[in-house]
Amino acid sequence: MKKVLFIFLLAFAVYLTGCTDDDDINSSYYNTPVISKTTDALAYSLVADYYTQTAGYNLSFTSDSLAYSLIITNYFSGIGSLRIKDTSGTIIYEETLQGNKVISFTEANNGIPGKFEIDFDRFTGTVNFALAKSSSGN
To answer: Which of 67, 78, 100, 135 has the maximum number of C-beta atoms within 10 A of its C-beta?
Structure first.
């Protein structure tokens, strides 16, 4: 079941990233984050052009058994960071958003997510992040 969840998250991230020519992207898509939150799942997508912003989103998770997926493509400049905090405010996952990268893993017993925080400073690139309850969770 973990393999199925991993494939789903990876396919979702690739779908959001897509294959397109920059000339085909409407400029209104730049610097407009797309966030989808449900119980036990979060998806965040951004096509950024010199983007500076700090934001936080409350999460509703019922398990500390989690699957993470982060894809950064078309990185050009700037820096960002993302944090997942548990319900007491302790950081359970943190990543620097600089350079192209693909990260995907599952993790358990590190805390139940309560907040997603993201910061950007003059960031240009595409970010796709997904977090979901892992099938091994209760």
So the answer is: 67
